[in-house]
Model the fold of this input.
Amino acid sequence: ACGDGGSKETDGEASGSDSEEGDEMEELTVQFVPSQNADTLEAKAKPLEKLLGDELGIPVKVSVSTDYNTIVEAMKSDKVDVGFLPPTAYVLAEEQDAAEVIIQAQRYGVNDEDGSPTDELVDSYKSMFIVREDSDIQSVEDLKGKKIGYQNVTSSAGFVWPAATLMDAGIHPLEDMEPVTLKGHDQAIISLLNGDIDVAVTFQDARNVVAGDYEDVFEETRVIEFTEPIPNDTITVRPEISDDMKEKITKAFIEIGKDEEGQEIIRDIYSHEGYVESQDSNFDIVREYEEKVSKEVN
Amino acid sequence: MIEFKNVSKVYPNGTRGLTNIDLTIEEGEFVVIVGLSGAGKSTFLRSVNRLHEITEGEINVNNKSITKAKGKALYEIRRDIGMIFQNFNLVKRSSVMRNVLSGRVGYHSTLRMIFGLFPKHDKELALDALERVGLKDKAYVRADQLSGGQQQRVSIARALAQEAKVILADEPVASLDPLTTKQVMDDLAKINEELKITMIVNLHSVDLAKKYATRIIGLKEGKVVFDGSVSEATDKAFEQIYGKVDEENVRKRAAK
Amino acid sequence: MIEFKNVSKVYPNGTRGLTNIDLTIEEGEFVVIVGLSGAGKSTFLRSVNRLHEITEGEINVNNKSITKAKGKALYEIRRDIGMIFQNFNLVKRSSVMRNVLSGRVGYHSTLRMIFGLFPKHDKELALDALERVGLKDKAYVRADQLSGGQQQRVSIARALAQEAKVILADEPVASLDPLTTKQVMDDLAKINEELKITMIVNLHSVDLAKKYATRIIGLKEGKVVFDGSVSEATDKAFEQIYGKVDEENVRKRAAK
Amino acid sequence: MRKVEVQQQPQNLSIPPSKTKPILTMILIMLLVLGSGWQINFSFTELIDGLPNMWELIVQLVPPNWAYFSEVTSPMLETIRMAVVGTTFGGLLAFPLSMLAAKNIFFSSWITGPARFILNLIRTLPELLLAALFVAIFGIGPIPGIFALMLFSLGIIAKLFYESVESIDPGPMEAMTAVGANKIKWIIFGVVPQVMSSFMSFFLYAFEINIRAAAVLGLVGAGGIGLYYEKTLGFFEYGKTSSIIVYTLIVVLIIDYFSTKIREKLT
Amino acid sequence: MTQSKGLVYIRRFVIVLAVLAIYIWAFAGLPTLELKETSIEVISAILAGIFSPDWGYVYDPGGEDLLRGLLDTVAIAILGTFIAGILCIPFAFMAANNIMKNKAVVGINKFILSFIRVFPDIVLALLFIKAVGPGEFAGVLALGIGAIGMLGKLISESIENVDLSAKEALIATGANPIKTFIFAIVPQVLPNYFSFVMYRLEVNMRAATVLGVIGAGGIGTPLIFALSVRDWERVGIILLGIIVMVTIVDIISSKVRARFT
Ligand SMILES: Nc1ncnc2c1ncn2[C@@H]1O[C@H](COP(=O)(O)OP(=O)(O)OP(=O)(O)O)[C@@H](O)[C@H]1O
Ligand SMILES: Nc1ncnc2c1ncn2[C@@H]1O[C@H](COP(=O)(O)OP(=O)(O)OP(=O)(O)O)[C@@H](O)[C@H]1O
Ligand SMILES: [Mg+2]
Ligand SMILES: [Mg+2]
Done:
C-alpha cells in the first residue's frame, strides 16, 4: 500500500536508498509487544540487540512497546522492520499488508490439572473458563446469564476464543451473559475471588500471576473448560523486506532459540523458549474465530 | 495604653524601618504621626498590631505584650485595634458590605463565619458605619467599582464597624476631598472624645495635625525626632521633622 | 489642545460618570480639577486618553479624534499623554526601574521591547526622573517594598520619563508629605512653564489648586459646575462645587 | 543589636542587580535542553521527512463514523457521572490540603512540608497500582473508579491551586490579620474571595481531564470512554476513534463554556 | 434595569438548578460501598512488596536499570516540556479574553486548545510514530504537542485573572497590546507560568502510559510491565525512584517560583 524505502536513518543520513528493496539494510528495527499470556516479563531491549546484531552483522535497535496498534502503524510507515505480535494483532496487520509472519514463539505447555508447566515445547496456548470452587457452575452450559469478566475485545485469550466457545454452546457472548470488561488477567482472577464476577476467562494459567498475592487461589477456584488452542506470538517482518533478508532474520532467531545463552535471555525477557518457522496459514484459525465472533459482536 | 519599649525594625532587604523607639501612648489620646515619605510612619503603625514583626524590643497594648502573644490572645488584642490602611486593602472582588462586615469576624465563632452568618446587629453596625462615611447607597456594589476616595472610605467604615478600643489610621484622608476630609476627621475626633478611643493617625497635612491632634510625634529616618503636645509643635519643630526647606536637600532626604 | 465635545459616560452598572461635558483645554494650560469624592474627576482624566470608552460625544487631542483613533494612531496619541494614577498602577513585582522604563515603550519597536532592550538614553532618562522625585537610590528595589508615598513618586517618575506633551495627574500628591508635595508640584509647574506641557491635575487641596492652577474646573455629579481662572475661583465658587458646609448634606452628596 | 548592624550593609540598592545569575540559569536551561535533545536524537529533518506518513493516518481519521455516536453515548454518560462525583470529592479534599501547603497561608514548614509530601505521594501513584489496590478493596465497578478519580483530581487541583494561592495579593490578608481574625476566618475573608476563581478553573480542568482520560475507569472494570479508544484503535477503525474524539470535544466544549461563565461570575 | 436584574436572577436560578440536577443524577447511579474479603491478603501482599523494594534494579551494568530509565525519562520530559512551554505562549496570549478583545480570535484559540486537549495521547503518539518511528523522539513530540493544550488553557486563564491596573498604566503610555502584555501582564503571570510548566514537567515524567506505548524507553515501560505481572518489589523501587525525582523537581520548582514572586 505504502512506499518502500528499506532502511532507517536514525543518524540523519540522507535517504538515498528509497527504491531498493531493503537488501542493503543498514540497521534493523525490532519492536516487541508483550503477549498477554506471560507471568514474568522484563522491559529490556539491550540483550536482544546484542544477540541479533551478532547473528545478522548489522546494528539492531530493539524497543519495547505496550500496544500493538503502534507497531503495525510503524511497520506500515517503514519505521519498524520486525515486530513481535500477538496472533490477533498479526491477523489484523496482515489484512493491511503491514506484516508477514516468519516465526512463532514456543513455550512449555501448561498442565491442565494444576497449572504447572509441562516439559513439552508448544507453539500454542489455551484459554480457560474459571469459576470459584464453591460455585454451582459445572460446565459452559451453566454459564447462561452469569456475570463474566472479559478482556478487551481484541484479546484472543480474554475474549475471542472464549466467546467462540460460548457460541458453540449456543450462548451469545454478550446478550446471554452479563459482561464486564477488565484490564489484565490478574484483575479478572481477583474479581472472581472477590465475587464481583461469576466466571473469568483467562489464559492458561493466569492464576500463577496472582498466586504470589493470594496463596489459596488454586484451591479456591476451579477450571470448567478450556478453549481450542490459540497460536503463540509471532515474529513478523515488513513485506517489503527482501526474501534474502527475511531468510537471514528467520535463521538468526532460530539460532538464538537454540543457543544456551540466547535461550536464557529470551526466556527471562519475553518468556519464550524457542522459535519455529511459521506461515500465514497457521493463522487461518485466528481469522476464522475473529470472523465468527465479530459477526455476532459488532 | 500602648507602650513601645526600645523598638527597632529592619526589613529583610536591609532597610531600616524604625530605630530605638521608646514611648507610651495613653488611653484616649489623639496622636498624629508626621514625617517625610519613607520616614517609617506606616512601619510604626503596623508594629502596634504586629502586622510586621519588629526585630528588637517589645510592644505592650493595655499591659499585654503583643510581641509575645500567641493564638487566641493575639487575635483578641488585635480585635480591639482597628486599622485603616494607606492602600485600603480591600477585597476588590467582594461587595462593599462584605468588606465592612469582615471587620466584625473577631466577634463570632469560626463555624458561624464559615457560613458567613453575621447577626442582624452586625449588618446594622456595618450600614451605620457606611452611612457615617456617606456610602450607604453603595453597600452592594463591588469594591473595584468605586472611586479612589470611596474605597478609602470603605476602609474607614470597616475599622469603625470593628468597634475597637484603638484605631490606627494610615493617611485616612489622603484621597478625600476637603469636605469629606473634614467630615471623616471630625468623626474620628468625636469617636475619640466620646468613647475614649485611642487614635494613632498618620497625616501629611500639618494643618490637620494641628487641628485634631492632642499629641504630635515626628519621625525621621525611623527615629522619633519630635514628641509633644500641639502647642509645642512650632514651625521650628516641623522644620526639624521635615528638614530645612532647602530644595536640594529635600530631595535627598525624602528619598531616605 | 484637548477638546471635549458633549461627552457623557455611563458605567456598565448604570452609574453616571460624566454628563454632557463640553470644553477646550489649550496647550500649556495648568488645569486643576476639583470636586467631591465620586464627582467624576478620575473618569474625566481617563476619558482624555481613552482608558475608558465614553458613551457619547467625542474627544479631540491636538485636533485628532482619540475617540475614533485605532491601532498605531491611537498608540501615538497616547504616547504623548503621560498619566499619573490615583492608585499608582505599578507592577508590584517588577523593580522600580522597570516600572519607570515602561513609560518609554511607546518609542521603540515591539521586537525590541520583547527582549527588553532599552537604549542607554532611556535608562538615563529614567534615572533622571527618579532623581527628580528623590528615589534614585531605590531604582532596583521591587515596587512592593516601597512606602505609599514612594510608590506614588514612582508613578510620577514614569510619567516624567515618558516625555509627553500632556500630563494627566490623578491626585499626584495624595500620599505625599508637605515638602515632597511642594517639590512635586513645583516640578509639574516648571515642566508646564518651561516645556509648555499641558497639565490636567485632580487635586483635593483647594490651597494647592489656587497656588498652581491657571484654570480651575469644578465637577459635581459628573457635570461641570465651575470653569474659570484662579481669580474667579472665589470661596463662593468652591462652596458651589463642594456644596454648602452643611454636615447632613455633605454626607448625602459625597455618596453620589 | 549586632544583627541589625550587619544587615545595614546591603543598602546599595541603587546599582543594578548583577545579571550573572539569570544568565547562568539561562545557560543551564539551554544546556539541559540541548543535552536532552542529543540524548534522544532530536532531528527536524526526520520529522519533516515523516510528515507524509503522518498525513496518511490523518486521512483515515476523517470522516468520523457518525453512527458510532449512539454506541458511545452511554459509556460517555457513565464517565461523566463518575467524573462528577470523583472530582467533587477530590476538590473538597484539595481545598484544605492546598491551604496547608501554601507558604503564604501557613508560614511554618512543619505544616507545609508534610502537606506537600502527601500531595507529591498522591500524584506519583500510577493508575495501574491504584487499580490493583482499589479492585482488591472494593471490587470492580464505579466505586473504585470514583476513588481513583478522586485521588487523581486531588493531586491535580491541590498542586496547581496551592501554587496559585501563593501568588495572591497580601493586602486583604493583612487587613484580616488586623481585625483579629483567627486562621480560618482569615482564610475565608482574606484569601477565599481572591482565589475562588482560580480554584474553579482548576476544578473544572480536573473534571475535564477525568472525562477524557477516563482510562483509569477501564482499569477497574467501570467502563468509561477509555476502553473504547482501545477497542477502536485495536481494530484499526480510525473513523470510530475520531468520532469518540469529536464526542469528547463536544462535552469538553460544553464544560469550557460553563467554566468561563462560572469564572466570570467569580471575577 | 429591573427587568434585566430579574433575568439575571432567573438565569442564576436555572444554573443552580442544573448543577443540582447533575449532582442528583450522578449520585443516584452509585451502588453502595462494600469491602471485599480478599482485600486484606492482597493488599498486604502488595504493600509488603512495595515496602521491600528490589534494590538490585537500581543499577545494572547491562544498562537497563532504574537510574538509566529515570535519566531517559527526565531527558524526554525536559525536552517535551520545553517545546510545549514555548509553543503554548502565543495560544495562551490569544485565548485570554482580557488581552484579545476580538471575540472570534479568543474563541478560535480556545477551541484549538480544547481540541489539542481532547486529542488522545495515544493517537498523538501514533501520528508521531508514523512520522519518526517509535522511540524517544516520537515521545518528545507527543508530549510536547499534547501539553500545549493544558498549558495554553491554564496560562490563558491565569492571564484572565491578573490585576489589570498596571495594564492601564501601560496603555496610557501608548503601548500596543504586545508591549502592554510584556510589561504589565508578564511579570504578574510569570510565577503562574513557571508553576504550570514545572507541573507539566512533572506530569511528563509520570507519563508512563504514553511513553510505554511508544517504546520510548524511560521508566514507564518497566513500570507497566512490573505492574501487569504483579512484581511489587520492582514496582516499589520504581515508585521510589519517581517519588525522589518528582520531589527534586518540586524543590527546584518552588525555588524558581520564589524568584518571580
Ligand atoms: N469601574 C466602575 N464601574 C462602575 N462605577 C464606577 C466605576 N469607576 C467609578 N465608578 C463610579 O463613578 C463615579 C465617579 O467616579 P470617579 O472615579 O470618577 O470619581 P472621582 O471624582 O475620581 O472620586 P475620588 O476623588 O474619590 O477619586 C463614582 O460614583 C464611582 O462610584
Ligand atoms: N516591605 C518592605 N520591604 C523593604 N523595605 C520596606 C518595606 N516597606 C517599607 N520599606 C521601607 O521602609 C521605609 C519606611 O517605610 P514606611 O512605609 O514606614 O514609610 P512611611 O513613613 O509610611 O512613608 P509614606 O508617607 O510614603 O507612606 C521606606 O524607606 C521603605 O522603602
Ligand atoms: Mg506609609
Ligand atoms: Mg478619583
Remarks:
- The pocket of adenosine-5'-triphosphate (ligand 1) is lined by residues B 145-150, 175; C 11, 13, 15, 17, 35, 37-43, 86 (CB under 6 Å).
- Residues 48 and 59 of chain B are 7 Å apart (CA to CA).
- Chain B has a mean pLDDT of 87.
- Chain B has two domains: 1-80+191-256, 86-164.
